[in-house]
Design brief:
The complex is a heterodimer of chains A (163) and B (108).
Chain A lengths: L7 H19 L5 H4 L3 H22 L1 E8 L2 E6 L2 H27 L21 E3 L5 E3 H5 L9 E6 L5
Antiparallel strand pairs in A: 1-2, 3-4
Helix pairs in contact in A: 1-3, 1-4, 3-4
Chain B lengths: L1 H5 L1 H6 L2 E7 L3 H11 L4 E4 L4 H5 L3 E2 L9 E2 L2 E6 L4 E5 L10 H9 L3
Parallel strand pairs in B: 1-2
Antiparallel strand pairs in B: 3-4, 5-6
Classes of the chains: A alpha+beta (163), B alpha+beta (108).
């Protein structure tokens, strides 16, 4: 009897799913072109989905010519274990894909409306906050001339923080 | 942040100082700046007072449910007037430095 063939499409599909998911926060988010719309990740997911489909079909298909019976070579079903493995991997992959869609298209857009945020031509509210050395700095100080050179302005970048 | 750091020379050229603001403590921001190599100013608003005043509070959105800032960028001119705002609708998506530099060039 020949050794049972390794179901590589389901395993590589699962691996590619993980790569497609993790490459967004760790790689593609650093480049605006792949960050603003995650097309690179969706492309990887599309490839992964094709691999799952092939892998699942393979697990559930009859295994051709692996057993020589008294009537010659016959088809026999794949062992139950291979079906279970394929089903589990496919389910996990679908869950990862679903979470990716949810986190990038829904969760990331759940932001407060900020209707009362300062608008163009309004005054930016003054503030005093500590810098990384613990030294307080105010917005008016940041806008004041340094050695006679007045800055043109400041760019205030509010970010979520690293907690 | 990284894109601002890499465009820092261009911001200096047009006379704009980038200032990052979050609820992180000065210590956390200092660690971040050291690790990531950020050399511009980072300010701490641990109680989110200023974040609240700018209506940017994202209540309970921190990892342990803390109140944090939603991402937002404001270009403020030397008179303290807002000249450009970006309130992103997706926190992965931020303003590109080129956009901001374009506006910065028009400031007097």
């Amino acid at each position: 009897m020949k050794a049972r063939k390794f179901n590589w499409p389901i395993w590589s599909g699962f691996l590619l799913t993980l790569i497609a998911f993790l490459s967004y926060p760790f790689v593609f988010v650093w480049f605006p072109v792949t960050r603003d719309f995650p097309w690179a990740n969706l492309l990887l997911f599309a490839l992964a989905i094709a691999l799952w489909v092939v892998g699942v079909r393979r697990a559930f298909a009859l295994d051709r010519g692996h057993q020589a019976g008294p009537l010659g070579v016959v088809d026999r079903p794949r062992p139950r274990r291979s079906k279970i493995t394929a089903s589990i991997l496919a389910t996990l992959s679908i869950a990862v894909f679903g979470f990716f869609i949810f986190s990038t298209f829904i969760l990331a857009r759940r932001l407060p409306a900020s209707h009362s945020a300062p608008q163009i031509s309004q005054k930016a509210p003054d503030f005093t906050l500590s810098d990384t050395k613990g030294k307080p700095i105010s917005l008016s100080e940041l806008l004041a001339p340094v050695n006679g050179n007045a800055p043109k302005g400041v760019l205030l970048v509010f970010y979520r923080g690293y907690w | 942040m990284r894109s601002i750091q890499s465009s820092l020379a261009k911001f200096e050229e047009v006379g704009i100082r980038p200032i990052a603001i979050s609820v992180d403590t000065p210590e956390v921001s200092r660690d971040l700046c050291q690790k990531a190599g950020y050399t511009f100013t980072f300010l701490s608003d641990p109680k989110a007072d200023v974040i609240r005043r700018y209506d940017l509070l994202h209540a309970g959105a921190g990892i342990d449910g803390q109140d944090i800032a939603r991402p937002a960028e404001f270009l403020v001119d030397s008179s303290g007037t807002v000249r450009w705002v970006n309130l992103t609708e997706n926190y992965w998506v931020r303003a590109r430095p080129e956009q901001i530099l374009e506006v910065a060039k028009t400031l007097g």
